[in-house]
Design goal:
516 residues, mainly alpha
């Protein structure tokens, strides 16, 4: 066998001998894409302090990655299908590394947002490429196991991102959390050339450029509206974006139905297995990503854990993902996708609802069971959905299938962070205003209401002020902690209800005996 992987998968007489090594490269590529978001959660306090970020800027530092990532995945997956899936993976890794270098060197909020956007473009190539290469490389008999490993990698990144970022932040500035991506991305590029076989669709034909453009406009505007409106109100920008997204969706569907070679066969949504799996992925990540997002903030701002300590305390979640992934490989072939996915979503719902118990005296122990349930649910239910979605696409459209699956995942995560995060912020603001609204000057109250981190910063100033003092500062800290804990409990109730309704809907839509 040659040292470099040069033989395309469709020209091999049998399964690719080094396919499990290739899977390792694909999972490594996926790992840094997911870590780019989770690592930023623990780096956010340092970035807020050094760059002077308000809540709006901080939100866009996080979501500047999300908009191009979600909007471009479908189109770039189709481009990879036509020209080269491995070439797309390599190009995406190089763009991702370049954005990471840029992000580590800049010193303004706008420049960081731009760097994150570049990384998002790279991620939009990497994600569908990893999934399409996986399906093209593995025979059907082994594909479910490979998809399970791919899914487990996403769960691992949820914990590894904060852990690695926390370790770096002990001795380095926040820019180091960007630089960690660079050696990993370059190593994955080299390994891909040696271990991942080239793959492209045969007879793909001309790309549906109009459909691709409509998908970019629709998803991009939808994600923008999702991000902006819950946090900053339905102003001109979010309303316009929502209207454009709605019009773009209608135009996209009409165009795709009539096009002889559409970028997406929208008639697939008539298939209950496909539509149920897509809905499950979207709703599942809405609830779990939103809950993990605000639970991590509670660990840092209320319980006072440093970034590294926060990362360590997320490790049980990663372990539970692997446990769920191992079990789904046994249960799904026996019970079918409907039972396994519905059970996983029910377990995830229970995990979110357990967070309603969070209160003033809560410790890390109160978060441990929810983390374990959420991790186990991710491992149990996501890979059967992904395997079902990818199994319904022909070989010529694997990149499109991967793009659709990953768009549902990213949309769900964006909805969870934006909607549940907005609900959290509103509840926190109302409760803190009731507690200390008459005790602080307007400017200090505005900062304290903006976020629990802002309240802690105000408390430091109050402690050093002759007009305040340590006692008043302690009262403000206690009020902020109480308000945030109450906000976590209230938000978790709403998130749990949404997931419960979604669980019932998915159970009704999925066919009874579909097997992965």
């Amino acid at each position: 066998m040659p040292l470099l992987a040069t033989t395309p998968t469709d020209r091999m007489p049998g399964p690719y001998p080094r396919r499990w090594w290739a899977l390792l490269v694909l999972c490594l590529s996926l790992l840094i894409v997911v870590m780019a978001n989770t690592a930023l959660i623990v780096a956010a306090p340092d970035m807020t302090r050094d760059l002077g970020l308000d809540s709006s800027r901080l939100q866009w530092v996080i979501d500047g990655y999300t908009v191009p990532y979600a909007a471009l995945m479908l189109v770039l997956g189709a481009v990879g299908d036509k020209y080269s899936r491995r070439g797309g993976l390599v190009a995406g890794l190089l763009v991702f590394a370049a954005g990471s270098v840029l992000g580590s060197q800049v010193h303004s909020a706008n420049a960081v947002i731009a760097a994150r956007a570049v990384m998002g473009v790279g991620a939009a190539v990497i994600m569908p490429a990893t999934l399409s290469l996986l399906v093209a490389t593995f025979p059907r008999s082994e594909r479910a196991r490979a998809v399970t490993a791919w899914t487990a990698t996403s769960g691992l990144a949820i914990a590894v991102g904060p852990l690695v970022a926390g370790w770096l932040l002990r001795d380095h500035a926040w820019g180091a959390t960007f630089l960690i991506n660079v050696p990993v991305a370059l190593a994955a590029v080299v390994a891909a050339l040696f271990l991942v076989p080239p793959s492209r669709a045969a007879g793909r034909g001309r790309l549906d450029l109009v459909g691709g453009l409509l998908s970019i406009v629709t998803v991009g505007c939808l994600v923008y509206a999702i991000i902006e409106s819950p946090h900053f109100g339905w102003g001109t920008g979010p309303v316009t974006a929502a209207v454009v997204a709605g019009a773009g969706l209608v135009a996209f569907l009409l165009w795709e139905v009539r096009h002889p070679r559409p970028i997406v066969n929208v008639r697939l949504f008539r298939d209950r297995a496909f539509s149920g799996s897509m809905l499950a992925v979207l709703l599942f990540f809405l609830g779990t990503f939103g809950a993990i997002y605000y639970a991590t903030q509670h660990l840092q701002f209320v319980l006072g854990y440093a970034p590294l300590a926060t990362g360590v305390r997320l490790l049980p979640l990663a372990g539970a993902v692997f446990a769920g992934a191992a079990l789904t490989g046994v249960l799904t072939p026996r019970l079918g996708t409907k039972v396994t996915v519905s059970a996983g979503m029910a377990i995830g719902t229970a995990g979110v609802l357990l967070l309603t118990r969070i209160g003033d005296g809560s410790t890390y122990t109160d978060f441990l069971a929810p983390f374990l349930l959420l991790g186990f649910a991710i491992g149990l239910s996501v890979s059967p959905c992904t395997d079902t979605i990818m199994g319904l696409f022909p070989e010529s459209e694997l990149g499109v299938g991967g793009g659709l699956n990953d768009t549902a995942l990213e949309l769900g995560g964006s909805l969870g962070i934006a909607i549940l995060g907005s609900l959290l912020a509103t509840t926190y603001r109302d409760k803190l205003t009731s507690a200390v609204g008459r005790q602080l000057p307007p400017e200090a109250l505005h900062t304290a209401r903006d976020s629990v981190g802002g309240a802690l910063a105000v408390a430091e100033k109050v402690a050093a002020s002759p007009a305040g003092g340590p006692a008043q500062a302690r009262q403000l800290v206690a009020a902020a902690h109480h308000s945030f804990a109450q906000a976590v409990a209230h938000t978790s109730l709403i998130g749990g209800i949404v997931m419960a309704v979604g669980t019932v809907a998915v159970a009704l839509i999925l066919p009874r005996r579909l097997k992965a």
